[in-house]
Amino acid sequence: MEGKLLEMFEVGPCEDDYQLGFLTGQRFCNQIRSRLAGDLILQNQLLPFARTPHAQPLLKALSETNQKKFPRYWAELLGTADGSGVPVLDIILVNFRKEILPFISKTTMNSNADTTDDCSDVLIVGDSMAVAAHNEDANVALVGHTYLIKGKLSNGLSFIAYTYAGELPSCAFGLNSQGLAFTLNSVPPVEDEIVPAGIGRNFVSRDLLEATSTADALARIRSSEVSVGHSYNLIDIQKRTILNVETASKSRVSVHEVGTTPFFHANMYLHLQVQQVHDENSISRQKRAAVLPQGSKTDFLSLLGDTEDTKYPIYMTGPTLYTLCTTVIDLDERTLTIIEGNPKYGKVSHVFSMSSNELNLKLVNHAEGTHL
Hints:
- The chain is an alpha+beta fold.
- Helix content is 29%, strand content 24%.
- The strands form 2 sheets. An 8-stranded mixed sheet has the order 1-4-5-6-7-8-9-10, covered by helices on one side.
- Strand 13 and strand 14 form a beta hairpin.
- The two termini are 23 Å apart.
């Protein structure tokens, strides 16, 4: 299964955040409409649930809480809906899917629509290498339904964000002109650990795109009273540091600074003490990563391209979960590289320079790819 070439849209500075969302929605209206029509989680779970009386208080509270905390990003979300010509409800549901799904009765869940998103990261900050490598895994409905947003804000800050069609940038990974980047991993707390109608993770990660320092990024994460929780890998090019930040509801945060020992993170809490769902997929990937070589960037790419475990491979090709791309952030080269296809073969589609405020795209031969 192959998606179309990943497109990038440069937008801004805009007169307001609604316009930023509107222009993005307008530019990618076909991808957004196609994604919503083919997304089984939306069609078979979220939309039927949203039509029930039980859903109304949750959706109302989620909307009000997040609009109050992040009015600019809420306007951007509304603009995306209007620009793409799709119902606002659909855009709200896909942006809050992680905050809504735990409250849908398991008996009404459609067994054909897996709710799990899986990503894998391997991180190191050593004397000779400082690298964050990340597999962006998602439901197969997202294949061909992602794009890059290069946003330029009126305050002079720029960001690049890998974006799921119809969602705020970015629930995956991004970087900005302050030399900050991040990748994300879902984590699965048990139902009792989830607080209804808290701040949505898509809003927190959108906020991170505008962070001016690691301390600022941490403050933005800590100040958001999230519903579900998340794992953030914060990468600071200027300071040459990588922090893994695990969060949960009730303002719980744990920070682990990555050092010379390679740090692999799948989709389980590793250092924040939270009751979590037993995830066989993550446990399997964690065990497999522990026995693979991790001494070089090539080793990292081989690890993220590993398919030895046919049931729970690190690199996923369906039928439900699919590795959309791999990104490699090299803190010494000051680059963010996007690889499409198995990263073992190093076929690069985009390389962004983080050494200037412009976040320039280096020339890549898209027909042949560039090898790392």
